[in-house]
Design brief:
The chain is mainly beta and 113 residues long. It is built from no helices and 11 strands. The strands form 2 sheets. Strands 2, 4, 5, 6, 9, 10 and 11 form a 7-stranded mixed beta sheet that branches. A 4-stranded antiparallel beta sheet has the order 1-3-8-7, with no helix packed on it. Strand 5 and strand 6 form a beta hairpin.
Length: 113
């Protein structure tokens, strides 16, 4: 059974940084790597795409985070990370990772002074 668990969220001041991790079990990325996508949902708003990394490590970002966020993968650790820099209050949301039809439970990121 595939499971995704996010970690690394928290409270950070504007301009600060956080790194989120999406740990995947039930699939061995060394033999069957898969694309993984990060999404976020702010209070009262629809869930939105943040970033994706493909099997060949190609990446794509939402315009709102381009140049500030970096997605990467470590197939040996079955983990996909999202490094977030220059954080803004508008980045406040629950961040979730997705692999095929599987979702993690999400991790809260709050950017506030």
């Amino acid at each position: 059974q595939v499971q995704l668990v996010e970690s690394g969220g928290g409270l950070v001041q504007p301009g600060g940084s956080l790194t989120l991790a999406c740990s995947v079990s039930g699939i061995d990325f060394n033999t069957k790597p898969k694309p993984v996508t990060w999404y976020r949902q702010a209070p009262g708003k629809q869930r939105e795409f943040v970033a994706i990394i493909t099997v060949s490590r190609q990446t794509m970002y939402a315009d709102s985070v381009k140049g500030r966020f970096n997605i990467s993968r470590d197939n040996g650790k079955n983990t996909v990370s999202l490094q977030m820099n220059s954080l803004k209050p508008d980045d406040t949301a629950v961040y979730s990772c997705k692999l095929e039809q599987y979702w993690g439970q999400g991790t809260q990121v709050t950017v506030s002074s």
